[in-house]
Amino acid sequence: MVSPVIVLLRRDLRIRDNGALAAAADTGRPVLPIFILDEENDGVRPIGAASRWWLHHSLHGLQKALKKVGAELVLKRGRTADVVAEAIDASGADTVFWNRRYDPAEAAVDAALKTGVRERDIVARSFDGALTHEPSLLKTGSGGFYKVYTPFWKALESGVEPRDPIDPPSSIQGLKGSLDGLTLDELGLLPAKPDWSAGLRECWTPGEDGAHRRLHDFIEESLPDYERSRDIPGKAGTSGLSPHLTFGEITPFQILAALHKSHGAGAAKFRKELAWREFSYHLLFHNPHLRDRAFRPEYDDFEWRRDGKALKAWQRGLTGYPIVDAGMRELWRTGWMHNRVRMIAASFLIKDLLIDWRDGERWFWDTLVDADPANNPASWQWVAGSGADAAPYFRIFNPVLQGERFDPDGDYVRRWVPELAKLPDRFLHKPWEAPPALLAESGVTLGETYPAPIVDHHAARDRAMKAYRAVRSDE
Ligand code: FAD
């Protein structure tokens, strides 16, 4: 009997540019693709609720795509090593392939798997796909890892050209019935009572086809003006590819290949943003505790305020600062928030409310469809000032000025905070300054129809500066 090849599919839910799957198909032997929901290994972080919704639909798409080329995706829950051992015993496989993961806890699971299966004389091989650079191989001149984005970007730019995408297998010899799996519903990923996913359904098409459609539309419609419009939250000026990248439905190799004929400022900026994602993974790979420890250790002495009421107001979009509230409501409804507003909302939580960035990181982890093990903690630490190459601690976003600058016509705030829609632009980002008659005319009663600000930004700014100076050794 010909031994089959097991292919593990986790954060690489695609059949195109999938090195592990293509190599398995190339052997000409039967292929057993398995997805494992592994939340049982120490240190592996269970994904959040919005990501679970995404994963359900992405797996559905992958099942269909694999079926078309002849293979059956087996769904399992449990410890990766146990499931693979069971699969080897049940199928007689002598080879296991997978695409590399870079979250340190997940990478540790895979490293242990490699050792374990090789001890049984099983071939184990991993492939690239998620990143264009290998974090363990890209080193600074002195042999360390990069802590600053610009030299990192230069190193990426001057390194080897990213490889071409790998063709999808046209047919795979499937292996039916050798291993019992769960049904998609049995994985229990969808919200039930209540089902809060209507907004997510309206905005997104999870899966590989949805990813490629987004890339195509973005290149056609928004790329040329990306440099300017990417900062305007009222416009659809960015790609919306983040959840597709997070779940590996599309690879950076495919995106870069699709961009190769685009030479304008938009394309150049977009490549640099993609490199921020590579940089986040580089940092995470070398700092496994990125989500729970400050990259600059002195920041772990920070005296954060414990204020459950303020945290809740922030989470629900009821802070009284319209641009912050618009962002938090966009997040709740769609599972995504515009990057500019992520920075403003995060700065508000950390600096205006002096609440620990880890609380914000956890909320985003649960509510974002693109919740990413690297981008999320790296970005939170960037805003907090505790990260590598972070925003300077004295950079405290003024939510009114940010709103006026990046949402000057109020399109964004009016969409997400409709109770302020009738206020004229002049007061939209600071309703508390509007004359009482104008507020009444616009149907706004502060403290009733819309909250009064929960903190005074200027006083909060002074408080934050004092708190930051207290922990900084160089002050
Ligand atoms: P585009 O502008 O179209 O960019 C294309 C791709 O480049 C993105 O999909 C993303 O992969 C990458 N990218 C863009 N900007 C950044 C950035 N600043 N840092 C790292 N990569 C970037 N991004 C996530 O993917 N997951 C997260 O969990 C996440 N959490 C964040 C939390 C905070 C507090 C902040 C300030 C930013 C966070 N980001 C996160 C980064 C950024 O906001 C999103 O990547 C971006 O908004 C996604 O939208 P897009 O795909 O339309 O971006």
Q: How would you describe the overall organization of this protein?
A:
47% of the residues lie in helices and 5% in strands. The protein is mainly alpha-helical and 475 residues long. Helix 13 crosses helix 14 (339-352). The longest helix is centred in the middle third of the chain and has 22 residues, at 265-286. It is globular. Bound molecules: flavin-adenine dinucleotide (FAD).
Adjacency order of strands in the biggest sheet: 3-2-1-4-5
Task: Give the bound compounds.
Answer: flavin-adenine dinucleotide
The mean pLDDT is 96
Low-confidence stretches: none
Query: In total, how many beta strands?
Result: 5
Major sheet, described briefly? 5 strands, parallel
The tally of helices reads 21
Strand content: 5-15%
| Shape, per Cα inertia axes | globular
Radius of gyration: 24 Å
The percentage helix is 40-55%
Distance between the termini: 71 Å
Order of helices and strands: EHEHEHEHEHHHHHHHHHHHHHHHHH
Secondary-structure class: mainly alpha
Brief write-up:
This protein is mostly helical. It is built from 21 helices and five strands. Strands 3-2-1-4-5 form a five-stranded parallel beta sheet, with helices on both faces.
Jot down its keywords:
five-stranded parallel sheet; binds flavin-adenine dinucleotide; mainly alpha; single chain; 5 strands; 475 residues
What's the layout of helices and strands?
Layout: E1 5-8, H1 19-26, E2 31-37, H2 49-69, E3 74-77, H3 80-91, E4 95-99, H4 104-119, E5 123-127, H5 149-158, H6 198-203, H7 208-221, H8 226-229, H9 242-246, H10 252-258, H11 265-286, H12 308-316, H13 322-334, H14 339-352, H15 357-367, H16 375-384, H17 399-406, H18 411-416, H19 425-428, H20 436-441, H21 457-471
Parallel strand pairs: 1-2, 1-4, 2-3, 4-5
Helix pairs in contact: 3-4, 5-11, 11-16, 13-14, 14-16, 15-16
